[in-house]
Amino acid sequence: MNQQRLMQVLLAPQISEKATYVADKNEQVVFRVASDATKPEVKAAVELLFKVSVESVQITNVKGKQKKFGRFMGSRRNWKKAYVCLKAGQEINFVDGGAA
Question: Residues 27-70: pLDDT tens digits?
Fold first, then answer.
């Protein structure tokens, strides 16, 4: 895979109550990824950037919310979320800026 493409696949870690609960319970990390990203690309990107080994990846499409702007209806963008399951004993620490 193209290394430059892999650098653009991961957009940001998804930090929320649900994400921290999943991280504690299942040893998974949640990322916001590019809308055209595939599971093999996400796996390769996480292994390249954080130097950890990935066991599996699940991807979900998140629908954008309907919002009202004054008297006009609009909607936020749809986006993609990836649940990355790390192998036993591996973890990514975002506070220090990399793998731990």
Answer: 899 999 999 999 999 999 999 999 999 999 999 999 999 999 89
Count the domains in the chain.
1
Give the closest residue to 90 by CA, choosing from 23, 31, 39: 23
Q: Is residue 47 part of a domain?
A: yes
The pTM score is 0.85
Question: What's the CATH code of the domain at 43?
Answer: 3.30.70.330
CA triple 28-34-37, angle to 5 deg: 75
- In 18-50, which positions are buried (b, 16+ CB within 10 angstroms) versus exposed (e)? ebeebbeeebbbbbbbbeebeeebbbbbbeeeb
Q: By C-alpha distance, which of 6, 55, 8 is closest to 29?
A: 55
